């Protein structure tokens, strides 16, 4: 009898389990279709918001993300009556409270046409203001945080608190979204064939990091670094009245979740005469592109310690990127000193 009751109870539990699973499957199927339809509607609305005059949108695979942590979910050519108006990209990447998803439009003349926040999970009242149509970074003109990107050129700096106004008390969110917009701008510039989107001068000059030189020429040999992971890309020599006064080189290395590229100049006495942070593809690394960060290295000696928190200040919100750039500047400066000492440049 007890055995039969146990079997009966097991059968009842099995029936309840099956019914529950079927019910959950039904709810999932019905809601998943609704969610998919809503997302598609949001996408279409966002596309038309960044390209209001477009007659249609054609999928394209020509726009590729430059950063492994920033994902381009879809890219479209915005079609107009007389041809392409530009490209629109749905992009998502890390932010303070989780992934943030945007639609970014870029016109064929290299101008951002608009930014639409599709999803943001950051703190309500702070980072979530990125998607709040009634939160203004400029109350006089009623400009929202994403709204300020419209009209920016791909060659603009895209640096929060410089040419991008941050959301109050939400600097991380502001930088995260700015990085997503900048990633699309960089990719779009290649796809559209417009001017590049580097936030440093478009033609970084070695004369800028070798200020005492009156002539800069290619070196007969490239400096080399003994530091693992550091790649020296090119080496130039600065001369004054025919005498070598220093050398510069461009170098790259891995950073937090991307790459960092620098241009470093060193005088013959081992003094760092100039530094430019040319590129940082870290998800939150763009703040180190600000000239103020690079200026800290000028006047310091190669061969001596360069450390975050000791004689170099990290950029707020980009400590790991700051540390990676600092290590690369030191390795590059040391390589230049060795090359200058060895002669034959």
Automatic annotation (TrEMBL):
This is Ion-translocating oxidoreductase complex subunit G. One of its GO terms (cellular component) is plasma membrane. The complex is composed of six subunits: RnfA, RnfB, RnfC, RnfD, RnfE and RnfG. Keywords: Cell membrane, Electron transport, Flavoprotein, FMN, Membrane, Phosphoprotein, Translocase, Transmembrane, Transmembrane helix, Transport. The gene is rnfG. Part of a membrane-bound complex that couples electron transfer with translocation of ions across the membrane. Its cofactor is FMN. It comes from Candidatus Cryosericum odellii. The modification FMN phosphoryl threonine is found at residue 171. The lineage of its organism: Bacteria, Pseudomonadati, Caldisericota/Cryosericota group, Candidatus Cryosericota, Candidatus Cryosericia.
